[in-house]
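Async update (no meeting this week)

Hi team, since we skipped the sync, here's where things stand on the single-chain job. The sequence we agreed to prioritize is pasted below, unchanged from the tracker. I ran it this morning and attached the output directly underneath so nobody has to dig for it. Comments welcome in thread, and please keep replies under the output.
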Amino acid sequence: MQLYIGNKNYSSWSLRAWLLMRQAGIEFTEKRLRLDWNDDSPFKRTLLALAPSGRVPLLVDDEGFAVWDSLAIAETLAELHPDKRLWPADRRQRARARSLCAEMHSGFAALRNRCPMNIEASLPEVGARCATEWPDVAADLRRIDAMWSEQLAASGGPFLFGAFGIADAYYAPVCSRVKTYGLPVGATAKSYVERIHALPAMQEWCAAARDEHDFIVEDEPYRQQA
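Output:
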């Protein structure tokens, strides 16, 4: 299989699919494209030749069949690799995990927009302003803090549903934002952020992100290119 992704420093949706596959030991070939949303860019042309979304992540199977959108990719991988137990075994826990992923997929717009993923940056002063000056960002953080704390207590940890799975991959970019922006979360959530960053696959992704040295102005609302 081939997984098309964007810049590792910025592409939070790409991280979800990539981290899930790498940490679960699912073999794939990485196809990284430089993020560029212009209609005539190599990024857009390459992706539109494979699927109508023109976005990353994009999974192409061994027969050339394309699956786009990170949630569809996660479901496809769970079907292809039931032995990996990417969703919880218990029916109700699967439903809860899907609910948390869907909430991330469609929600937390304020956090995502005000604090875009930027792994190689350190912007605690920006995070402090966002958390105090934007009530919708503060509300997103409170919900995430409560969600993680409740779910970790229910599962016994170390991950949201015990073992690493789709839900953890889905919230990994949020963990990255907490670290980049020094966002205020409780002790349980902070420990979870550290456990996600300690994953070998997450460490690999972050190291590659820092090595890109590719400043994309559209993804840098708080910094200027040196």
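Quick observations from my side:
The domain at 2-84 is CATH 3.40.30.10 (Glutaredoxin).
The CA atoms of residues 79 and 87 lie 10 Å apart.
Reply here if anything looks off.
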